[in-house]
TrEMBL record:
Taxonomic placement: Bacteria, Pseudomonadati, Pseudomonadota, Alphaproteobacteria, Hyphomicrobiales
Protein name per its UniProtKB record: Cyclic nucleotide-binding protein
Swiss-Prot/TrEMBL keywords: Ion channel, Ion transport, Ligand-gated ion channel, Transport
One Pfam family here: cNMP_binding
Keyword Transport (UniProt): yes
Species of the source: Labrys okinawensis
Annotated ranges, domain Cyclic nucleotide-binding: 15-134
Length: 148
């Protein structure tokens, strides 16, 4: 994927709403584009995080650990950012991410992500909103489980 297409893809991602196109281009230049085949892991539970990922193409399955077993907790597609929570919390990964299809991702290293957040309050707010949306989704799922 060329740089212009990469910028266009991330520009359409809700988390990048309102970010200056020049800064998006800079982010794309500073990040690394990677491809994974179906079944490959981007990261695993317990690893020390050094990057977040934006899905450019394909779907990624997120897996939680239940004892010795991995259980599917959802799938994310193009435009989604994954792995940022562990980076922001400075904690080990608490989920695994596995390519559900052949995928292309933009790997944003920890320092670049943190610098982007410091320099762009709109980006920080977008991440905060996305994290709040996920908390609400989890709370709703838990409430549904408890009432059924």
């Amino acid at each position: 994927m060329d740089l212009d297409l990469e910028v266009k893809t991330i520009r359409n991602a809700p988390i990048f709403t309102g970010i200056d196109p020049c800064k998006m281009r800079l982010l794309a230049c500073m990040s690394e584009q990677l491809t994974f085949e179906k079944g490959d892991y981007l990261f695993k539970v317990g690893e020390i995080p050094d990057a977040a990922y934006v899905i450019l193409k394909g779907d990624v399955e997120l897996l939680g650990q239940n004892g010795e077993n991995l259980i599917s907790i959802g799938t994310e597609g193009p435009g989604a950012m994954i792995g940022e929570v562990a980076v922001l919390c400075d904690a080990r990964r608490f989920t695994s991410a596995r390519a559900h299809t052949d995928i292309s991702v933009m790997r944003i290293n920890k320092d670049c992500l943190l610098r982007m957040m410091q320099d762009n309050p709109q980006f920080s707010m977008s991440i905060a909103k996305e994290l709040a949306r996920r908390v609400m989704q989890i709370a709703t799922q838990d409430a549904n489980i408890l009432t059924h």
